[in-house]
Structures are given as structure tokens and as C-alpha cells.
Amino acid sequence: MIRTVDRIPQKFLTHIEGTDGLYEIRIKEGSDIYRVFCCFDAGRMVILFNGFQKKSQKTPRKEIEKALRIKQDYFKSKIIYP
Q1: Percent of the chain scored above 90 by pLDDT?
Q2: Distance CA 82, CA 76 (A)
Q3: Less Cβ around it within 10 Å: N or C end of the chain?
């Protein structure tokens, strides 16, 4: 869906409050709900990070922290290997 629409509905892609550019993609498969963290690079390119199966209403803080570390590593590697 991310590739085929210009504007993604908020129910599928939401900004994680309190973060600098971290987003959560929501995926539902049958009765299972999955989340994949991502950010945007160069405006339109979506960079996917860690994903997990959501089992409660609240997104686990440790998953957000993991995504932020991966995001930081991604952008640091772009500086070293442009």
C-alpha cells in the first residue's frame, strides 16, 4: 500500500509521539496485528526498521527505543558510507 498511494491513511501510518521522525506502520493479517517502525529518508523513501506483533493497546517502550537505535545507526552509516 505504501508504494501505491500518495497519501497513506493515518490508521495505517502514524507518527510516534515524542520522537523525531519515527513512524509506525500498522498491518492486520486475519486477527493478528503487526507493527513495523520506519522513517522517511530523502523525502519519499521509507526506511523500515524493527517489527513486532502487537498484543496490547500500548506500544512497548523497549520496541520504540530499539527502533530509535536502528534509525540512529542507519543515518550514521550514511555519513560514513554515502
Answers
A1: 49
A2: 10
A3: C
Q: In which residue are the cell numbers 552509516 written?
A: 77
How many H helices and E strands in the chain? Answer: 1, 4
Nine-digit cell string for 53? 506483533
CA distance 5 to 36: 18
Distances (CA, A) of 79 to 28, 66, 67, 74: 35, 21, 19, 9
∠ CA(16), CA(70), CA(49), 5° rounding?
65
Distance, CA of 28 to CA of 77 (rounded, Å): 32
**CB 47 within 8 Å of CB 69:** no
- Gap between the Cα atoms of 46 and 3, Å rounded: 10
Q: Is the pTM of this model over 0.85?
A: no
Task: Measure the CA–CA gap between 37 and 22, rounded to whole angstroms.
Answer: 7
